[in-house]
Amino acid sequence: MTKVTLEVNGKKVSKEVPDHTLLSVFLRDNLNLTGTHVGCDTSQCGACVVHVNGKSIKSCSTLAADIDGSKVTTIEGLAKDGKLHPMQAAFKKTHGLQCGFCTPGMVMSAVDLLQTKKNPSDKEIREWLEGNICRCTGYQNIVAAVKEAATKM
Amino acid sequence: MKSFNYHAPKDVKDASKLASSNSAFLAGGMTTIPSLKLGLATYKDIIDIKNIKKLSGIKVSGKSVTIGATTKHAEVASSKEVQKAIPALVKLAGNIGDAQVRNRGTIGGSISNNDPSACYPSACMALNAVIHTNSRKIPAAKFFTGMFETALKKGELVEAVEFQVPEKADYQKHPNPASRYAIIGVFVAKHKKEVNVAVTGAKSCVYIDKDLSKKLSSSFSSSAIEGMKVDDSEMNSDMHASSEYRANLVSLYAKKAVEAC
């Protein structure tokens, strides 16, 4: 067992967990933050993407113990005071989702993109979202959502 | 995933002491953790080396670029210093996996795993890299010994990779559309006296294509290797590409790389 202390969505949390606990498991099972989804479980689909110290990573391929002391932001931490984050609002506005399973990861990835690149081209958006797989939308509206959000962020 | 003991030593000595035949070093974990989850590997001890400060960072001198083992692909991809010295290395690092993999995956992990389709081993071979471990310096040509095999001994840890700055270089990759691993990756480096053409993804282990290298060493132009046939007898053949297709890509991508230099 190992003690993992994190700041998750601005709140300090500390839990004693088995050494092999994945960050995705820590978030979902220990903190009940089930917005972070686990899709493929082989690090390819990106449904589990969260931010660790501001950078997007795949939480299903990261040990909780490994990032002890870090700041984590999950999809639940984006909206502020009941108001959707501009990226969430843009996904809603442009119909960037259908079933919504991939959406938390898509949104977290896209937010990270706009942190590093303010006005990405279609090509840059598509390249950046390489690690996020969606079964429903054909990606067109997701790209449109990221472009829309870029005008607001 | 089967349970294990997680260790996060602060220096190389402690990391090495913890190592056993039933342990693995953990850097970015982009291969190790999926392997553990799929049950392809099990260990009693996982030794995380990311808290060892001296293993991370980039040093550029006139003749070489030295990258610490735990330096992430994203750091190499965004390094202005590396871009100035060896832009091909920046290009290679920026096209590994996806953005999230690049935010975690490391050069030391990549070369220690020696996946036959990984990108970095080709750069090591073409750029006459020297692999610094906690006990010795190993030339790249002797480091990569076979499929998922390296010259590393038990408890031996890669500390840094020292690349020779070439006159010109380029990396061309035909990625697997899902994993972004190289179906074929060709790294061409023109040094003062010789040209190295390193190939990944084609065979069970990265290698230098001697014929292409020789031809380009005497004349560094794409016309020198135009239409050159590459032997496909030892090449991988799978659902993504037949051995003949791979052999053709090696020739084609070597040409593309020369043209991009």
Care to give the gist of this entry?
The complex is a heterodimer of chains A (153) and B (261). Chain A is an alpha+beta fold and 153 residues long.
Explained architecture:
The complex is a heterodimer of chains A (153) and B (261). Chain A is of the alpha+beta class and 153 residues long. Chain A has 2 domains: 2-76, Beta-grasp domain (Ubiquitin-like (UB roll)); 86-150, [2Fe-2S]-binding domain (DNA polymerase, domain 1), CATH 1.10.150.120. Chain A contains 5 helices and 5 strands. A 5-stranded mixed β-sheet of chain A has the order 2-1-5-3-4, with helices on both faces. In chain A, a hairpin with a 2-residue loop joins strand 3 and strand 4 (55-58). Chain B has a domain at 168-260: Enolase-like, domain 1 (2-Layer Sandwich), CATH 3.30.390. Chain B starts with a strand and ends with a helix. By secondary structure, chain B is of the alpha+beta class. Chain A binds chain B through residues 2, 18-20, 22, 41-44, 46, 49, 55-58, 60-63, 65-66, 109, 112-113, 128, 130-132, and chain B through 1-6, 8, 26, 29-30, 33-34, 36-38, 46, 48, 50, 74, 97-101, 103-104, 178-180.
